[in-house]
Every structure is written in C-alpha cells, then in structure tokens.
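INTERNAL AUDIT FORM
Audit reference: QA-55
Scope: verify that the stored structure record matches its stored sequence.
Auditor: D.O.
Record contents follow.
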Amino acid sequence: MENINVVETTPMPRIGDNAPGFKAVTTQGEINFPADYNGSWVILFSHPADFTPVCTSEFITFAHLEDKFLKANCKLVGLSIDGLYSHIAWLRTIKEKIEFNGMKDVEVNFPLIEDIKMDVANLYGMVQPGESSTKAVRAVFFIDPKGIIRAIIYYPLSLGRNFEELYRVVIALQTADAFSVATPADWQPGDDVIVPTAGSCGTAKEFMADKENMNCQDWFFCTKKLDKEKVLSTILKK
C-alpha cells in the first residue's frame, strides 16, 4: 500500500468566531490579545518577513495611515515569524533610510509581534504550506470591539495589500452595525446602502414606515440614501 504523507495544519479561525487569545512580546511591550483591545476594532495582520521589500512598503503605508485608522476606533497589530531584535532593527532602518510613494522618515508605533516559534501564526492559520511553510502569508483579521472576527482577507507573499480597501472594510463593517444595513459592491460612505430583506411582519412594518426614502426594484433588492456626514460623524472620533 502506498504511503501518503499527511501535512498537519491548524484550522484558521472563521468569521463570527471569537478571536483566539494569546500573550506575546512585541516592539511595544507585552500584549494580551484580544483582551487588551476590548472596546476597539483591531486589524491583526501578518507579513512574511522583516527586511523584505513588499513588507517594507506595507509597513510604511500602515504607519502613515495609523492615525486615520485610530480615528475610526481601529488599532493595528502586526506579526511575522521573526525575532524582536530583527523587528526593531528593521523598523529603525525603515525610519532612517527608506522612502516609498513620497513617504519617508516614517516611524512605526503600533506593536509588531515576535513569533519565532510560529505559535500565533499557526493559531490564526497564517502559515499556509502551499505558499510557504516557514513564512506567514499576508493575512488580515478584522476584529470588533467584542473580540469577534468580522472579516478575513488573505494575500499571497508576492502581492502587496490595498490599504484603501482595508480602511473601507473597517468603515463598512461599522456602518452596517450602526445603521442595521448592508453595503453593496464598491460601497463608499455617501453611497446608497442595502436595506435587509424583511424577515418578519414587524420588520416589514418598520421598512414600510420609511418607504419614501427607499428605492425598491423588487422585494429582495431595496436601497436607501445614507448621508456621508451622518456615517462619518457616527463612526469617526473627533
């Protein structure tokens, strides 16, 4: 009988799951995740390795946009399968030597997790052997203030992330929560939102009361206006 090699993998957490908890050393000190972030949205993201060009471009961009994410009550936490001293040396090099898209002298102030033993990377399914067994892929976990995973995006090693999309996801998730709506394809604040299909008589009556503001093309496809300023004033910190 032919021998079959079985590769053991840790199932990655799914949307709707509680974010797996862990304690780790980071460039900003020890963290207890996600407990330390209760009340805030968090983007937990991994990158393949320090001192690599695509990752460098991403960290410069994330650091440049950190204040924008913080105003949306969203904190950033990075990870790679590298040691703390490698992280520190790399981030210092980024600040002192690297310019990308007009951004330079950029200091990374959010925590970068040391994960030499791949404990956290395996816990979150960030190591995918078909891509690499020694590096984390570019995973992005969006975690809400209650510690629930709300969205997940995965990129291969060769593909840098789209940061406008990462920010759009944060705003869209918060908009859906705050206004009990869904967001259509390519949605941006100020665009029409989707009114969920009425699932009960009570919900149907509520929708009918607001029918003047709705555009229903059929029973399953109704949209309504949602003012951009209303969205942003609800979500963004002043």
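Auditor finding: record pair retrieved intact. The domain at 22-162 is CATH 3.40.30.10 (Glutaredoxin).
Action required: none
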